[in-house]
Design goal:
Helix content: 40-55%
Oligomer: single chain
Largest sheet: 5 strands, parallel
Structural class: alpha/beta
Number of strands: 14
Distance between the termini: 83 Å
Strand content: 5-15%
């Protein structure tokens, strides 16, 4: 006999689950898993990282002569697993609507096919991110060190994959991929954020980039930078209006130093510099430099 009233706890947990499922209009017996698995998506992403960078993020015993075989085998397995998870998400989204299961399955297959075709372009973008980190950090000794060690690059690998899933109508899978990187690096990039080529996050811990942020080419940010929303519009009933543009637009060649907070749908102009620990809620002209000193009231003397 258990010393911990396990049977009673099991019954109470069963009751709590039923109450939650009823409140969320969930089936009591859905006949299988209703939504995607974080563990399964973790395996998919690890496989995709190996397929994108086989000699550096693939298995330690891989040799050049078997590189293409490894990539093909790994990619096929990863995309098959991703299709299963995509199907679960699409069925989950449609659970309260009349649905044609075959049509949902075809939609999932088409989305994953498009995702697979996007991988060469994602690799090119990531090569640019790695090069930007190497060129932007005097402590970096090689591009390989950057790829293997830098948390900002790991976050961008996840983001480039997650953003593609987001655009293909798989936002839950995208969020799972993004939050895995958040957990590992402390860098929180919403998969909806649009980030152009050559992006470098130096150090990285505490960086937050919101869903509707738009970031141009060759932008560099440091730790604890926030590109966030200033306010959240609501409808007539007080509910948050989701999906509206509410995060900054950062144009090409901008540098944002540690601890800066930029809020709202403001534009940071091309080649502007935002100093450390400043709070920005207005547009910044191209080429401008914003520092704590520049934001202080001027003495009348």
């Amino acid at each position: 006999m258990s010393q911990f009233e396990v049977s009673d706890i099991v019954q109470q947990l069963h009751q709590v689950r039923d109450e939650w499922r009823d409140s969320q209009r969930r089936a009591r017996d859905p006949g299988g898993r209703e939504f995607p698995s974080r563990d399964a998506m973790t395996q998919v992403v690890e496989s995709l990282k190996g397929a994108l960078f086989p000699m550096r993020l693939g298995p330690p015993d891989l040799r050049h002569e078997s590189e293409d075989f490894y990539v093909g085998h790994t990619l096929d397995s990863a995309l098959q697993s991703l299709r299963v998870q995509a199907t679960l998400e699409l069925h989950y989204v449609a659970r309260h609507q009349p649905r044609d299961e075959a049509a949902v399955d075809l939609q999932a297959t088409a989305a994953v096919r498009e995702f697979g075709l996007a991988l060469p372009g994602i690799r090119r973008l990531l090569d640019g991110d790695v090069l930007a980190a190497y060129q932007g950090d005097p402590a970096a000794r090689s591009v390989d060190e950057v790829l293997l060690c830098y948390p900002g690059v790991l976050a961008m690998i996840h983001h480039r994959l997650a953003h593609c899933l987001y655009r293909l109508g798989l936002p839950l899978l995208a969020r799972i991929v993004a939050e895995a990187a958040h957990s590992q690096t402390g860098i929180d990039i919403h998969p909806g954020a649009q980030i152009d080529a050559g992006f470098f996050i130096d150090h990285g811990t505490g960086v937050v980039i919101g869903e509707t942020a738009v970031i141009g080419k060759r932008v560099r940010v440091y730790q604890a930078v926030t590109l966030g929303a200033k306010r959240f519009p609501t409808d007539a009933e007080g509910n948050l209006q989701k999906g509206m543009p509410r995060h900054p637009v950062v144009e090409d060649d901008v540098v944002i130093y540690a601890g800066a907070t930029i809020l709202g749908r403001v534009t940071i102009g091309k080649a502007a510099t935002i100093g450390g620990n400043v709070w920005v809620t207005d547009h910044v002209p191209a080429g401008a430099s914003v520092t704590q000193a520049s934001l202080q009231p001027q003495s009348p003397c």
